[in-house]
Amino acid sequence: xxxxxxxxxxxxxxxxxxxxxxxxxxxxxxxxxxxxxxxxxxxxxxxxxxxxxxxxxxxxxxxxxxxxxxxxxxxxxxxxxxxxxxxxxxxxxxxxxxxxxxxxxxxxxxxxxxxxxxxxxxxxxxxxxxxxxxxxxxxxxxxxxxxxxxxxxxxxxxxxxxxxxxxxxxxxxxxxxxxxxxxxxxxxxxxxxxxxxxxxxxxxxxxxxxxxxxxxxxxxxxxxxxxxxxxxxxxxxxxxxxxxxxxxxxxxxxxxxxxxxxxxxxxxxxxxxxxxxxxxxxxxxxxxxxxxxxxxxxxxxxxxxxxxxxxxxxxxxxxxxxxxxxxxxxxxxxxxxxxxxxxxxxxxxxxxxxxxxxxxxxxxxxxxxxxxxxxxxxxxxxxxxxxxxxxxxxxxxxxxxxxxxxxxxxxxxxxxxxxxxxxxxxxxxxxxxxxxxxxxxxxxxxxxxxxxxxxxx
Length: 457
Prior knowledge:
Elements: H1 16-35, E1 39-40, E2 46-48, H2 49-52, H3 57-62, E3 66-67, H4 79-84, H5 87-94, E4 97-99, H6 104-113, E5 122-131, E6 143-152, H7 158-173, E7 180-185, H8 186-195, H9 202-209, H10 212-215, H11 217-226, H12 231-236, H13 238-241, H14 247-257, H15 262-281, E8 287-290, E9 304-309, E10 320-325, E11 339-344, H16 346-356, E12 369-371, H17 376-391, E13 396-398, H18 405-414, E14 419-422, H19 425-430, E15 433-437, E16 443-446, H20 448-455
Parallel strand pairs: 1-5, 7-8, 12-13, 12-14
Antiparallel strand pairs: 2-4, 3-4, 5-6, 6-11, 7-9, 9-10, 10-11, 14-15, 15-16
Helix pairs in contact: 1-7, 1-16, 7-15, 8-15, 9-11, 14-15
C-alpha cells in the first residue's frame, strides 16, 4: 500500500472556505493600504544568502531556510571542510541563496538597490509569504504571510499618527471591535535605563520589564537582579511599576521619573505628539494605550513602538506591531534613512475573527446557483443561460454529468450552493427556468431576465 502523502511540519493546506476568509482579510487590509496612499511592491521568495544572514542575530540566522546550490553542490567543498563538519565553513559553499525570513530586510535591500528610481518619502505595502525554520506550535508556523506597510525617508511623527488611524480603519472594516493599540518609545526605555544606572544593560533590563504582565513584579525584579542590575536601580524603578491610569496620567508619571534624562524627555514629547493627534482625530473601533513595559524588538526600533492586542476575552498574542527605525538601510550602505512601519498578523486576525464569529456570511459564498444536468440537449440551454448570468457577475455553473438528480442536489447541498436551476423539456418549451431555494425548498418559474434580476442585488 502506498504511503499516505503529507506536507512539511509548520505548513498548511487551506480549503475553499479558509482561502475565502483569508482573502477577505487580505483584501480589506490591501484596500486600506491603498486608501492611505501606500504603493505595492513584491520581492523574490528567496534572496542571496548574504542579504539575509547576519541581519537577525544568531538565533534568526539559525531559523533561515537555506537553499542548496543546483548541480553538484559538494564539488566546491574541500575534503578538510567536509570532514570537519564545520557549518560556518561548509554552508556558504553549498548554499548561496535562502528563503526570506521577513519582508523588512528585503525591503531595505529594495530601497537601496532602487533608490534612484524611488520618490522619497516612499510609502510601500507588501503582502507575501515568509519562511522560518521555527518549532511549529499553535499560532506559529514555518510558512506564513506578512502584511506590512512602511514609510521611508521622513522623520515626521504624523506618520505614526496615520499608522494608528490605519490600524483603526482596518479593524473597523473587519468588525473587530475592542482591539488595543499599545504604544511606547525606545527613547523612554533608554531614559529609564539611564536613570537607574543600567545603560550598559539596556537589553537585559527591557527584556525583564517586558515580562511584567506575564510573570508579575517580584519575578521581574528577581530577573533584573540575576542580570546584575543594582538593588538601588531596582528601587528607583518602583514608580514605574506603580504607573497606572489614562494616557495623560501615565505621561505625567513618566515626566517625574525621567526629569533628569534628556533622551527620556524626548521620548515623552514624541508620545505626547502622537496622543494629541489621535485625540483630535478620534478612533472608531480601536483604543490607544500607553504601555511603558512594551519593548518589542528593542535593538531594531529607535522611536515609537507599537503592538496590537486582540479584544478582551480572546486568548491570542499580538495581532500586529511595528515602530520607528532610524537607520534601516544602513545595513546595505545607505545611512540616515529614517522609516516607520507596521504589520498585520494575518493568521492571528483570522483566528480572532473566527472565535468572535464576525466573518460575513457572504465571504464564503462561491457558486450562487447550480444548473442541474438532464442531458446534452438541456445542458446546452443551461450553458446559454449560465453565460448570461456570468456576464452579469453571478457565479454559476453546470453539474458536468447527467446523473441522478438526487446526486446533483446532494452535491449542491454539500457545497452550500444556495440555489439550483432545473431546465427540463417542459422549461425549454415554455422558455422558463425553475429556480429552487435549497434552504426553504421554495420553487418559482422565471424568465431569463427575471432569473438575472433575482440575483442582481
